[in-house]
Amino acid sequence: MKVVIIGSGYVGLVAGACFAELGHHIVCVDNDARRVLALRNGVIPIYEPGLKEMVKANVAVGRLSFTEDLESALNGARAAFIAVGTPPRPTDGHADMKSVYAVARAIAEKASGDLVVVDKSTVPVGTGDEVEHILKSANRPFRFAVVSNPEFLREGAAIDDFLRPDRVVIGAEDGWASEIVSQIYNVESFKCASMLHTSRRSAELLKYAANAFLAMKITFINEIADLCEAAGGDIRDVADGIGLDSRIGRKFLNAGPGYGGSCFPKDTLAISKIARDYRVELRTVETVIQVNQSRKRAMALRVLDACNGSVQNKTIAILGLAFKADTDDMRDAPSIPLVQALQDFGAHIRAYDPEAMDNARKIFSNVTFCGGVIEAAAGADAVVVMTEWNEFRHINLNTLYSRMASSVFVDLRNLFSENAVVAAGFDYWCIGRKNAVAQTLRDPLAVQRRTAAI
Ligand code: NAD
After folding, report:
1. Is 430 an annotated catalytic residue?
2. What's the whole-number mean pLDDT along residues 420-424?
3. Between the CA of residue 107 and those of 31, 73, 76, 130, 180, what are the distances in Å?
């Protein structure tokens, strides 16, 4: 089937490559001319394991192409997926829908036959109604229908998540449209655990609800980690113990510096705003947002405490800048408030990330970007692990120690074994276990003093 994907970012590009892999004829459209040119030249604008190879293979057999020209792309297509960004509006935190509606208007103008418009972007409930209104108001002589088909892929594991998802949700009001979208997925090589058919509004709502729940799970374990630090438990044991309960599950129970990325921060904010529009208070979600924001800001205090209360004129090596491993995405990464706060406290920052350096350069100033872990740590007073990159697990800790000016090792992802780090000579600070950082943080006066400073 010929299918058009509009928006060639993390979701659109992965969806395009994977649908092509499933045998469909895919045209990816983007209004960023440089991005389209790069894609045509085989340059993938994002880092996602396996994506480059999949794009290359499907372009080679003629199942995948890239264009800026929506009109020619739509010619002969039976479905068009919208996969453009829906970032928070800077003024009020509501999802900014201008790209989605611009695409809807462009489709209404340029379609050349009956078309199912499938919304894959994460959008507020009622967006499908509005897109349908835009399409039908154009009075074109074609049948249009709008389906909500939210995407649940995780960056870093996007291809596997797309081709072997826990579920595909098809939210439709028209039988023929639902049937076409089902056909796109009903391919033998597509391994989906469940196909869920819902109303369009339910599909729109459940995507935000899923992300809000996962954000809540992370925030919960982070707070339990604080309690472990104060009371003397070990968060890894606690997470294992509660995660073994099949009603809870172990995933999303790794304590860390707070969630970031392109989805959880914006989607928790958006669902809380949507709810308020409907005069419903999502107090759990609103609390999660606040707790997570203050946690991200407070991470700098941990580094400060590990450095005997001051980082003034000290050099801090940051290992990992991306919001999580296996992506170059820096959107709302916890490294951003950390680096900025440490700079405000007078620190010099050296940093290394295996994939996110180009994106990080656009965000930070006065950071020395380095070509590897050992280079970043050279002469540093402290090393701070911010992203759980696999590469970091293989660091030679003895070499690292020998290159540094001091022995502070702050592991905000609990990536390392304390014994190994201490054996190499470091003082080790982590999340969710009783240590000196936790004790100073529990001193209410110290907390007040430093929070005021931030
Ligand atoms: P992105 O910013 O990476 O990509 C969006 C793309 O759309 C860009 O290439 C941009 O140039 C293009 N675009 C914008 N306006 C356009 C227009 N009018 N015509 C054509 N192209 C246009 O965004 P993303 O991370 O892929 O997210 C897309 C949507 O999917 C969002 O709603 C997001 O919440 C949702 N989502 C994202 C993820 C994720 O992990 N990134 C997962 C699930 C759902």
Report:
1. no
2. 96
3. 13, 10, 13, 14, 18
